[in-house]
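User: I'm preparing a small set of examples for a lab meeting where we compare how different chains pack in three dimensions. I only have the primary sequence for this one, and I'd like the structure in token form so I can line it up with the others. Please keep the answer compact; I'll paste it straight into my notes.
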Amino acid sequence: MTKAKKWKIAIIVLLGLVATVLIAIGEGRFWKYQQNYIPDGTYQMIKYEDKSAYSNELINWTERGENNDSLYEDFIVVENMKSQFYYVFVGDGEPFVSPFEHDEKLPQTFDPRTGTLKQDLTVSEYEALVISHIDKISKKGEEYSRVKEVSVQRCVDDYKKMLKQKRTYEKRPNGLVLTVYTNDGHIESRRTFKRLSSEEAKGVKSGYDRDYEYALKLGTASGGATAFSYGIGTKELIIELLGQLQ
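Assistant: Understood. Below is the structure token output for the 246-residue chain.
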């Protein structure tokens, strides 16, 4: 065998090894993507755990809430590995939802390579969205400007904190688990979600829209009560005005 043929064989063998490695890497990435792929759909939170104020122990607030007439009914909508979160809390039979989350898009993206959930908006984009939303639902004026400045700053500070937190997700057979970590690596909160059928999802969305309309009326009643009161409107006056709006 000539020297040239030996070189050709060596090159062919080397290329074969490289191709084998690349195929293995590709298959590994594909498998990881499939393993962490979250199907489109609506996911209802069925368990909410949060860190105790006195230790790193997680408390099951879903279980406690059921015993105290308080329910957490958050849900997320997933489409093309992007997630939209909707906060829903029911206390003493009264629902609370965020008009901001209802009206605006606050997208998050599942990253299958790292198993993390990331915020899509930058701080400046989020701040502009908050300002735009407050302008749409509030009246102008000097007092409004002061309240607006404080409200925007609080929202931005919370969002900056959120960006610094590590958020991971774990795919389950019929749902997923979202976990938030503190800066020192401890679990801060964990939410378990169950994927809903199309009919169940319609029911959840319909209920959420009703709660949203109620939240708007409550906000109007609260603003009206404050306008006719010294300081913050009383609970009694808010309830009275709310009855007039229903």
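A couple of notes for your slides: The helical segments are 3-36, 61-67, 99-103, 123-137, 142-164, 198-227, 235-245. The mean pLDDT is 75.

User: Perfect, thanks.
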